Amino acid sequence: MNAHRRLPHQLGVAELSAAFAHGELTARQATEAYLARIDSQDAKVNSYLHVTAHAALDAATASDARRAAGKALGPLDGIPIALKDNIDVAGVPTTAGIAVRRGRLAHSDAFVVQRLKRAGVVILGKLNMHEAALGATNANEAYGVCHNPHRHGFTPGGSSGGSGAAVAAGLCAAALGTDTLGSVRIPAAYCGVAGFKPTYGLVSTRGTVPLSWTLDHVGPLARKVEDLGLLLDAMAGFDSECAESRARTTGDTRYAGPYSQRLDGLVIGRVVGLEAVPLQPGVIAAFDRAIDTLRSLGATIIDVRFDGYDFTPLRLQALLTIEAEAAVVHADDLAADPDGFSETFRTFVGWGARQPAHKLAAAYRAVADVQLIARRALAQAPVLALPTAPHEAFAFADPVPHVQADLTSLANMARIPSATVPMGRGDTGLPVGLQLLAGEFQDALVMRVAAAYEAASASYVAPD
Amino acid sequence: MNAHRRLPHQLGVAELSAAFAHGELTARQATEAYLARIDSQDAKVNSYLHVTAHAALDAATASDARRAAGKALGPLDGIPIALKDNIDVAGVPTTAGIAVRRGRLAHSDAFVVQRLKRAGVVILGKLNMHEAALGATNANEAYGVCHNPHRHGFTPGGSSGGSGAAVAAGLCAAALGTDTLGSVRIPAAYCGVAGFKPTYGLVSTRGTVPLSWTLDHVGPLARKVEDLGLLLDAMAGFDSECAESRARTTGDTRYAGPYSQRLDGLVIGRVVGLEAVPLQPGVIAAFDRAIDTLRSLGATIIDVRFDGYDFTPLRLQALLTIEAEAAVVHADDLAADPDGFSETFRTFVGWGARQPAHKLAAAYRAVADVQLIARRALAQAPVLALPTAPHEAFAFADPVPHVQADLTSLANMARIPSATVPMGRGDTGLPVGLQLLAGEFQDALVMRVAAAYEAASASYVAPD
């Protein structure tokens, strides 16, 4: 299919880039098309909290001028993307989904925004999210519910709910989110798009409003895996001003394609022993089909278990560290204007903040030990596969399942890369995701397996 | 000087190794000489808590047999060393200097002990230490005071006081200690020997009794820098069973010599802005001479400051993390037999354990940010020099100076390598140490500068 036969919002990052390069489309045209679509379509989704139309058009015009002068910056030059609203863009508000931060302007760009601007991206605006990134429904009391574009009244997931929804609904070519226990991958899975949480420290979190500086990651969401790779290539790198930055070198690994479509010789561990996490039948069936697909690509499938990993207790230990850190991050605002937060947030964070220090120290220890659990599993197979979430998206009217992040949070604690790619539909026809894991700094391997699976499977399907 | 003209206890690791290789001495003879010396000399020092004479003689005999068969294992084969008593040797008690642990046998070897045994070392025994490694005087209520071999009644420093004292007094060829805020380097400086704290995660701490799993490091003490390098070569390496292990590869860096005796082209930062830490005049004078020596070796000296580093507040933040973690480590023993700990220990740890979680989370954050402070300083000069301790060793009868670890603890929080080498004598004639720092995983660079300085300066001087 030729790129120009489709509308701009149907093209991914790589496809748009090719269309720009071939003169079939300008960055200005693509940006105008996205802005028009946001105008006409986002009222029912509510994925954008702030549209930076003027700056976007200026950036697109500048991109086109560079290209006309033969000075295009690379594959991201002129690509219209959007950012979760806890990522700073200078001169634009960063609410982090919290009422008290309404209208609070960022003074400078986040590290990843600096990187992406230098690569020429066009920033369309800032996206809805669960309050303070603590929660995975995106039922935001202050800024309004963000809906799943596949089914109104259903959660897009969270906390990067706006990112998942905007990418799925074709309201940006790709988006950034943040992921503390699954907050990039859960909305990607619920909304039927691809998402990536890099190795801890590969992408600097400087200039994002932290939820937990020890578990937070910045990651991309896109409709195609190769688009994730193009974004990660620009985002990854050592940041001497970020204590968590562990990227040793820049540019020695490429995350973008072209990828092989075969997985011959690769051993993939199917994660078993998930009995503690109730999986919907449709998720189990989709996962079984995904494993068959991976096998058909030449991979050898073996069963692997996370020995010593207790899902619920470990999620609760991680939650305590998050609550204590969130209390530090938002201390001034909580003291000055407690009503600028939801009662739910204040209750959680207040409880965590008051626990005795020895309990928090033990929680940090338990979380760190998940690195060992992951290493032991990865010693059996270099890539592990499991569902991204135990279920499809649910209705806002329904109770929130406690196990939402049980399958994703291991990768945050273990600090390992984790991708989600669409693996078809679940029981009621909503998207479900396949999760792929590998060892620390094996991000390119995860990307490669995700791309091969994507090419052989259903992949992204636009909402009706 | 030929090695065989000197007594075994006057030889360092490399010198003993050469003497073995040339057939001038056997491991058995060296071991017997050390054991005899421990018998005759250690009563007044009290550096050994446990002498494993039988196992040592067996190991020495086995080493000699290997050598006779042409199968010597390398430069450490047959070298008699000793270990701080918080490092596990299978079948030998590990007290960690705590009364409640008296006689408690270790079930297996610590990671570093496995490594060193595989390299052929002979373990003479286990060394005195400050209770639980929390403190730097080695005035141990349960196991007795360990004295500085340079002046009886004076502290050898701590918490690895027995390690510093035994190396200085010639009661082992080298020793291992652990270092949480300076516990290898402070006793090395006070006792006039060399000591090394590696990059965090380069040497696994598995099988040591933790004080703080986030700040603990295992490191060597020896009379010569090249001996530190030989030990580090054997100790460093990835440990898949240690959450803190960050060594990516084994054997791709050598820490042992031969080292260049020149430092031409190297920029060394003299750390200034230490006004908050009262330095003894003799330490200042010795440090000025050391800087002159480094300059005479060809290094360019510039002034560098740790911008944003507040010595006392940061030491107190680190102390809170340590107390909370120590409460977790010793929880069972504290519950079962509180009188098995000193009142001082219980008071400190109990206070830390009861602080609210948000305070501990903030302390972890402040400690992590020291990585940034160090990176900014190291961006100006790849190697930094400062005194190891602000003063000489003090009498047990005198009050303990609070600033003991103020100059060493930065390297623990920043996770960077730090060496101490003797830089002559202070006001009252006791040894003082020069501290050298470099960036993460630049351990070999620190070793190289320390060796060049050592070769050009007074170096180790045996106690009278």
TrEMBL record, chains A, B:
<dbReference type="Pfam" id="PF01425">
    <property type="entry name" value="Amidase"/>
</dbReference>
<dbReference type="InterPro" id="IPR023631">
    <property type="entry name" value="Amidase_dom"/>
</dbReference>
<dbReference type="GO" id="GO:0003824">
    <property type="term" value="F:catalytic activity"/>
</dbReference>
<feature type="domain" description="Amidase">
    <location>
        <begin position="30"/>
        <end position="446"/>
    </location>
</feature>
<dbReference type="InterPro" id="IPR000120">
    <property type="entry name" value="Amidase"/>
</dbReference>
<protein>
    <submittedName>
        <fullName>Amidase</fullName>
    </submittedName>
</protein>
<comment type="similarity">
    <text>Belongs to the amidase family.</text>
</comment>
<dbReference type="InterPro" id="IPR036928">
    <property type="entry name" value="AS_sf"/>
</dbReference>
